[in-house]
Amino acid sequence: MANSQYEVVKQFERENYLLQDTHIVIRVDGRGFHRFTKNYDFSKPNDERALKLMNKAAHCVMESIPDTVLAYGDSDEYSFLLRKDTDLFERREAKLVSTFVSSFTSYYIFYWNDYFVDKKLNLDDGLPTFDGRAVLYPNIKRIRQYFSWRQVDCHINNLYNTTFWTLVIKGGLTPQDAENKLMGTFAKDKNEILFSEFGINYNNEPEIFKKGTVIVRESNEVENVSDALNRTSLEEQNTGAVDAPLSLRQKERRAKKRRKMKIQEHHADIIGDTFWHERSYLFE
Ligand code: ATP
Ligand code: ATP
Ligand code: MG
Ligand code: MG
Ligand code: MG
Ligand code: MG
Ligand code: MG
């Protein structure tokens, strides 16, 4: 290997190796989408084309990075959960985050025309860019809290935005008046405004708006749910038993199984137990 006198600068590089035995979540979020969505005339409060484009990009990222077991997204953001024992890029944070962000952005731009057939991306209106971060969670309880947090956020924003834009578009209020009217209101007040003033039952709004989208690898093997739950809770108790490292053959078998799993989209509740109890294999 040719070691030049300049290679000394390599020593200035610092790597953050994400702690092993923790769950990695990578979240990407559109930069300045408040403005971007205005420039491209997104329908308000929810442009369905844009949500489907986000889902498409996330789906492609999951396909191209098999260690991603689940993704959840709404608005201009997507969170990706990696399998706990992933060794992708030796768990180097910068490699992981930058790869997710640039893959997601590439797919978003590549498929733009499929969803926005009459509006091309252009420099005047700005190109879509995303930022990203990685967060580590120590156990399944925290992972579920994380995804619950994102879905609650989706719900709160959507109820607010739906009421706000109904007041503006159907009620003829100025944005300022609509904002004032909603100040200090609770969820039940917004539901009431939608129903009594506009005959809209919020519960009947499309699930993709209310719940966001969860994309998950589906196991085709029906597994014994209680076995799986016992196993995961045992793992979490950390009773002192040392995890036996998987043999190469075991690893290959599992990787093959993951590749064969179908990637599927749902607009489901991920706050309650059902979704997770049906998919405990995600944490294997
Ligand atoms: P930042 O760069 O800090 O993320 P931002 O302008 O992107 O700034 P966010 O908090 O991420 O701020 O908000 C996303 C914005 O994009 C919101 O204004 C939201 O209403 C809008 N938006 C995202 N997706 C859609 C959609 N499908 N239809 C309509 N508007 C959308
Ligand atoms: P990693 O994902 O680790 O970066 P890599 O395959 O991208 O893996 P690099 O060290 O980044 O590895 O090397 C880039 C590769 O791309 C080299 O093989 C280089 O020769 C090739 N390459 C890059 N640009 C050009 C170019 N303009 N013409 C021909 N080959 C190129
Ligand atoms: Mg942001
Ligand atoms: Mg944003
Ligand atoms: Mg956002
Ligand atoms: Mg390279
Ligand atoms: Mg290179």
Automatic annotation (TrEMBL):
Its cofactor is Mg(2+). GO terms for biological process: tRNA modification. Residues 142-272 form the Thg1 C-terminal domain. Keywords: GTP-binding, Magnesium, Metal-binding, Nucleotide-binding, Nucleotidyltransferase, Transferase, tRNA processing. Mg(2+) 1 binds at residues 29-30, 76. Transmembrane segments: none annotated. Binds 2 magnesium ions per subunit. GTP binds at residues 29-34, 75-76. Mg(2+) 2 binds at residues 29, 76. Its EC number is 2.7.7.79. It catalyses: a 5'-end ribonucleotide-tRNA(His) + GTP + ATP + H2O = a 5'-end phospho-guanosine-ribonucleotide-tRNA(His) + AMP + 2 diphosphate + H(+). Residues 6-138 form the tRNAHis guanylyltransferase catalytic domain. Pfam families: Thg1, Thg1C. GO terms for molecular function: GTP binding; magnesium ion binding; tRNA guanylyltransferase activity. Adds a GMP to the 5'-end of tRNA(His) after transcription and RNase P cleavage. Belongs to the tRNA(His) guanylyltransferase family. This is tRNA(His) guanylyltransferase. It comes from Saccharomycopsis crataegensis.
